[in-house]
Amino acid sequence: MPLALPTRWAVLLHSFFWITLLVFDPGVGLVHAQTQPQIAWAGKNILVLHAFEGNAPVFLGTDKGVSDTLQSSGIPSLNQFFESLELRRNPGAEHRKLLVEQMRTRYGLRKLDMIITVYPEALEFVLKDCEDILPEVPILALYLPQGFDLPETDRRIIGHAPAVDILGTLEIALKLVPGAKRVYIVSGAHEVDRRIEDQTRGIFEKWEGRLEFLSLSDMPFEVMLAAVSGVPPGSIILALPVSRDVTGKSFTAPIVAQRLSQVSTTPVFGILDSQLGHGITGGSLISFELIGRKAGQLVLDMIGGIKTPDNIPTMLDVPPVPMFDWRQLRRWNLSEDTLPEGSIVINRELTLWDFRFYLIGALAFILAQSGLIAGLLTSKRRRKSAEESLRQKSEELDQFFNVSLDLLCIANIQGYFLRLNPAWEKVLGYPHEELVGTRFFDLVHPDDLAATLEALSKNISQQKLVHFENRYRAKDGNYRWLEWTSAPEGNLIYAVARDLTERLKAQADDQQRREELAHVSRIAMMGELTASLAHEINQPLTAILSNAQAAQRFLSQTPPDIGEVRQILDDIVRDNKRASEVIRRARALVRKEKPRQEPLDLNELIQQTVDLIRGDSLLQGLTIGTDLSPELVAIYGDGIQLQQVILNLIFNGASAMRNAPLTQRKITVRTAMADHRTVKVSVTDFGVGIDENHIERLFEPFYTTKSEGLGMGLSISRTIVKAHGGTLEASNNKEGGATFAFTLSAYLGDRS
To answer: DSSP characters for 28-47?
Structure first.
């Protein structure tokens, strides 16, 4: 069917694209990833037919976009055919005949699945000259003029007409240069250039009265440059195609953009991507490669069956792309924040700030690696030092065994002493010869025999360190308390005992001195949370001391039990961390650092606290009772800080009953639900009570009624309770004594 003739306007627009785009330098390629379904593409053949020379930038960019898209989906380059008709260079009939024969030879017997024509001359050639050679093959006709009428035919033809987005470019320019008052239009004198410029008049009507539009198309290009170089501030340059100026001299878009940028005192904007990178700031630009990618995707959708005849478009729409040159944006101090969403910015220069995350990561890696190396070197140095120390201790084992003040022994599992150090004779009074060969069970107090046998059985069966205490009969018939640590090794038992007799007798006398020493320590620590810290770190410090002494004894054995020593060292580290954590949290509270919050069973916490001090309480003749509500719900808080409050209140009550009869030295700790959202804890004593005239001052810092007190305990306790969202109050009991009670909110869910 013959090709319908386009209107004169359409011919002029087509000529504009041929004259201006054919000579442009290659534009910036756009990455437009497409996702294709898994289809067997073997045997699919695509023909791309150029009306003119195939090495023109518009063709090169389009071909690249088409080829990349087809290959990314599995159509190999061998199945992609690119032909250039060169009709502009060879317009004669003989050339067309040769082309027809060439097409017949190459494609007469080859099955083509799709033809892409570039420019209307190529479409006309396929429909008129190759109608019998390439019948019924669907056609995608690219770069048709605006208003071009597709021929009526049974063959599927999809058209494409590129749109010049002058309006979009101007709107972008005015956003980047909001104070612009004048727009200088650089355009050529070619008929097509004039036609494009004429289109701007209708577009610019919306800015009448706000902007002044000045056309430079009637000037020679050199005069245009002079005019551009002298434009006043508050102006922008709109670079339209300049195929030829009034003197008849031809130009290319990159050259025009470059020379305008060199002389312009204001930003230059354009409409073609071939201008970008040569001096224009940017605009809503036509991308040849994007058109090729869109065309390739449509071909894949059609021959792959993704698009059916019902949803195949009649026209391929490829909108312009907002593209900008970072160097020009920086040159004119234009903000990237005003660029349209999805804009592409080229020539961006990377700075160290752009690599900040990589630099931070690399620095963190280097620091971590340095720390690891330092740790390994330290560990190696420590290991070497430990090995040397062990060697020396092994050599000196006999000397340590003989000079130790502790009771060291080696026995068999039948209960007979095999080796003893001289300390046994000094402590128990038996000569060495009398003890060796004696069953040590014969010396154990009858009341302690069962527990000793159980400890020995546990020692042998579990093959681990065992700690226990019992009483041994001395030569004079008296019994002495011994604290044991024993470990099995095959059929032998290695044990060390320490005489506790004198220490237990001296505990009562030492209690007062320990309290005075604790008072000095509290002053040194600024009096903050002192009572709690003394009790909280007592256990880990005692464990550290015991473990360190045990480690010394194990290192004194022949051979040393390195495994047990390492276990002891792990225990020391754990206990040290526990003590450090208590101190850190107390300091965090004083410094208003955020405590570690978690759901807590307050009944369990109270029971642990009472168990912690029960030994001291018994020595003071004090009875601590609990009345813990089984209906109590969980609370949310810091266990160590709340335990400190409970300890302070118990010690405060104990202090109030110091001069009371033994029968009245009772403290009761109760828990109850004040309401469904509030938990209440009360500590009741039967002491002297509280002076009603000073009850409000009890919680003031440094206020105390005790001669030995610093007056910080109740103040700190109220601070802790308040930090947990609760209240702490005091009142006198009708039957005597006082009650300190605090409330806390019930835990109702996640508080992260």
So the answer is: --------------TT--EE
Burial 697-733 (b: 16+ CB within 10 A, else e): ebbeeebbeeeebbbbbbbbbbbbbeebebebebeee
Q: Give the 3-state secondary structure of residue 653.
A: helix
Q: Are strands 46-50 and 114-118 parallel, antiparallel or unpaired?
A: parallel
Q: In what order do the strands lie in the sheet with 282-285?
A: 212-215, 182-186, 235-239, 268-269, 282-285, 321-325, 344-346
Q: Which fold has domain 398-498?
A: Beta-Lactamase (3.30.450)
Angstrom distance (rounded) from CA 357 to CA 373: 24
Alpha-carbon gap, residue 65 to 48, rounded angstroms: 12
- Both tokens assigned to 40: 């067997």
| DSSP type of residue 352 | G
- Could you report the per-residue pLDDT of 42-79, keeping only the tens digit for each? 678 999 999 988 776 678 889 999 999 999 888 898 99
* Bridge partners of residue 269, in order along the sequence: 238, 282
Residues 217-276: tens digit of each pLDDT = 899 999 999 999 999 999 999 999 887 899 989 888 889 999 999 999 999 999 988 889
CB 241 within 8 A of CB 187: yes
Return the half-sphere exposure (C-beta side, CA atoms, 13 A cut-off) of residue 625.
Answer: 9
Give the C-alpha separation, 469 to 204, whole Å. 103
Q: Which fold has domain 596-745?
A: Heat Shock Protein 90 (3.30.565)
Instruction: Return the SS3 of 272.
Output: strand
Q: Any idea where the domains of the chain sit in the sequence?
A: 8-163+289-303, 166-283+320-346, 356-395, 398-498, 596-745
Classify domain 8-163+289-303 at the CATH topology level: Rossmann fold (3.40.50)
Tell me the C-alpha distance between 142 and 50, whole Å: 10
135 Cβ contact list (under 8 Å, min separation 6): 155
Topology agreement, domain 8-163+289-303 and domain 166-283+320-346: yes
Q: How many CA atoms lie within 13 A of 684 on its CB side?
A: 15
Place of tokens 């006082």: 738
CB atoms within 10 A of CB 373: 10
Query: 3-state DSSP call for residue 306?
Result: coil
Q: What is the pTM of this model?
A: 0.44
| CB 518, CB 534: distance < 8 Å | yes
Instruction: Kindly state the percentage of the chain with pLDDT values over 90.
Output: 29
pLDDT at res. 324: 96
pLDDT tens, residue by residue, 394-419 = 777 778 888 888 888 888 888 888 88
DSSP class of 208: B
Phi, psi at 65, each rounded to 5°: -60, -45
In angstroms, what CA-CA distances link 565 with 386, 556, 572, 573?
Answer: 11, 11, 10, 12
Cα–Cα distance measured from residue 644 to residue 30, given in angstroms and rounded to the nearest whole number: 67
Beta-strand runs (E) in 515-574: none
State the pLDDT at residue 25.
Answer: 42
Q: How many CB atoms lie within 10 A of CB 348?
A: 14
Q: In what order do the strands lie in the sheet with 727-732?
A: 623-627, 666-675, 678-685, 738-745, 727-732
Write out residues in the chain with pLDDT < 70, as ranges. 1-40, 42, 56-57, 192, 354, 507-537, 539, 581-595, 612-620, 703, 705-712, 750-752
Per-residue pLDDT tens for 125-184?
Answer: 999 999 888 888 999 999 888 788 888 888 899 999 888 889 999 999 999 999 899 999
Let me know if domain 166-283+320-346 sits in CATH 2.60.40.1090. Answer: no
